[in-house]
Amino acid sequence: MPEHFLIIGGGAIGLTSAQALLQAGYKVTLVERGTTGSEASWAGGGILSPLCSWDYTEPVTRLTQRSMGMFDEAAKNLHAATGIDPEYQRSGMLLLPPFQDDRATQWCAAHQVQLQHVTLSDCVPGLQGGGLFMPDIGQVRNPRLLQALLRQVKMLGGVILEHHEVQKFEIAGCRITGLQTSQGRLSADAYIVAAGAWSQTLLGEHALNLDVRPIRGQILLFKFDTPPFRQILLQESLYLIPRTDGHVLVGSTLEDAGFDKSTTDEARTSLLQRVYALFPDWRNQPPVRHWAGLRPASPDNIPTIGRHPNLSNLYANCGHFRYGVTMSLACAELLRNEIEGHPQPVPVEEYRWRE
Ligand SMILES: Cc1cc2nc3c(=O)[nH]c(=O)nc-3n(C[C@H](O)[C@H](O)[C@H](O)COP(=O)(O)OP(=O)(O)OC[C@H]3O[C@@H](n4cnc5c(N)ncnc54)[C@H](O)[C@@H]3O)c2cc1C
Q1: Average pLDDT, the chain
Q2: Residue 40: which domain range?
Q3: Residue 47 clears pLDDT 90, i.e. is over it
Q4: What CATH number does the domain containing 67 carry?
Q5: Looking at the structure, do residues 161 and 227 belong to the same domain, yes or no?
Q6: Nearest CA to ligand 1 atom 2
Q7: Domain-embedded: residue 197
Q8: Which atom of ligand 1 is nearest to the CA of 215?
Q9: 105 occurs within a structural domain
Q10: Residues 306-334: pLDDT tens digits?
Q11: Is the four-CA dihedral 52, 89, 94, 146 of positive or negative sign?
């Protein structure tokens, strides 16, 4: 059984993996190319749910549902332990037309998820028509969640090595013996790739069937004196996420632009047009910030979690695409169970690393 794990990548996935292993008594070193929590996990919206769950397959539902059920308590514990509030709140999500009423209703009934048919003007002034409200959907504030996780990993004795880019795996037989990094060689008993959109490139020929590529998403940030509404609003691919201090995130795009993290005028214009169609008054309130991040896209949004088929001390936890923050807690739990040979709480066949 390995005692010391080296985790590559300091996003939500690397940090929650580190947290789970440290809590189980292992030694953990986390290696991050830049600064911890500054890539996709920082850029994301922090909605703790798929946008329209009925658009996804059961393996996605299984991970997201399990993780969503863990967040409330995990966020409270994290806040108490670190003093940093990840601002978890069950703000609910309000779907604006057009939406697939029958599919949504059937899916929610089948998965015991609350769904209410509402009059939009009763919920948000200025909106018209009927909507669907999912009251149990929550959100976190990503930068704060990441700061809290980082602090907890350090408090649990984890070692964080920032500005260390992993460049090559050293292999002997069917084991990794070390990593070559921009700051020299590192070694441990076992290795976990949690390098987000960069995971497949980093693994090179050892990626095998692992299929992860970058898909860019852009977000605009607005600031109001008080929150203009309480619920997350979703209209097709457009979402608006209100924070308690009056910030509202508006996202997002899905763009195949390789590893280019630039923001674009096209995305800004398109997001603004859609938001102004909902709230014409916002024309007087230009966005205060615009950013982009690279999602670790995987086929059907199904991540790879577990041991490499041929290299006995190499593991992956990557490819969470649009829902890595949502899935993070459950994925860390599944990874830890796999390492320890413990029974899994849900079927895991679809997440296996295949040749
Ligand atoms: C615009 C946008 C909106 C989103 N909204 C949501 C949402 O509302 N809810 C949700 O659940 N998810 C959302 N997501 C998706 C979510 O952010 C990702 O699925 C998640 O952050 C992936 O986490 P990660 O740790 O795998 O990747 P990352 O956060 O990208 O972390 C990977 C880390 O690995 C490091 N790394 C890479 N290569 C190396 C190397 N060679 N050596 C060392 N370190 C390396 C990187 O520097 C990076 O810090 C959104 C994403 C975007 C971009």
Answers
A1: 97
A2: 4-82+142-212+299-351
A3: yes
A4: 3.50.50.60
A5: no
A6: 44
A7: yes
A8: 53
A9: yes
A10: 999 999 999 999 999 999 999 999 999 99
A11: negative
